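Example record

The entry below shows one chain as it appears in the dataset: sequence first, then structure tokens.
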Amino acid sequence: MLRSLASRLLYTLPVLWLVVSVVFLLIHLVPGDPIQAMLGEGAATADLQAARHAYGLDLPLGTQYIRYWKGVLHGNLGQSIRFSGSVSHIVAVRYPYTLQLTLASLFVAIVLSIPAGIRSAQRRNRWDDRALGFVSLLGLSFPNFALGPILILFFAVKLGWLPVSGTGSLAHLVLPAITMGGALAAILTRMVRTAMLEELSQDYIRTARAKGLPERTVVYKHALRNAMIPILTVLGLQFGALLAGAIVTETIFSWPGIGRLTIQAISNRDYYLVQGCILAIGLTYIAVNLLTDVLYSAVNPRIRQ
């Protein structure tokens, strides 16, 4: 198991290097001078040159690239141009908010999709199966930037049940989590239904029912456990989509996470901060994929063989 995880980790490191390298090149190709934007149009030439030298932006692009990766290997992600602080510290402060929102969205998606998918599989081609199929299709049709404002207008502005934006309490987390988890719940519901239909038609399910086991035990202990492999695969893949969706959702709800920080960094051409945010998101995605591999073996012992 450890050898397999180490092998997968080695495979993902080149992908992480490529992503950060592409972001490094693209952000430097964007027109505009971040130092000029920071100091203002009326800044003296000497001040501009001194600031560029302080941040290492007066060096050739290749030298900047090498220096950046040397800093990464030593745990130094550079200094933010906009916030005048360590990128590592800024990302570390914002990261828990994004992780909190992503896990809450994942929880919403799982709580909604697994019971709905099982119910849909058990009631195949009946009215509730068709109703759940329509609802999941509706969830897939609403992107985050459309669902978020609708939830704000209804639950925050009209009913006044929940805060509009910001953070500070569990109530602030509800609308962003539903916004991000809604589309994932729709995807998972269809995946759970398909996987459960396949498992419920297997011979071991008929044998379990013939032995007189309760239907709840047959469905949740036997069928669902074997159906979890494709479900876990989708969860692992969609975790990255949740991180990407956090950029839009955090902006809509003024959530102080890495997604909103990335938008601010791109707008200000804060090179080091953009690269730090992308690196944090990439490392998280790699960790989730490794965790998914571990869960495969925990859910289905046959994979360990």
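Notes for this example: Residues 215-252 form the longest helix (38 residues). The chain has a mean pLDDT of 81.
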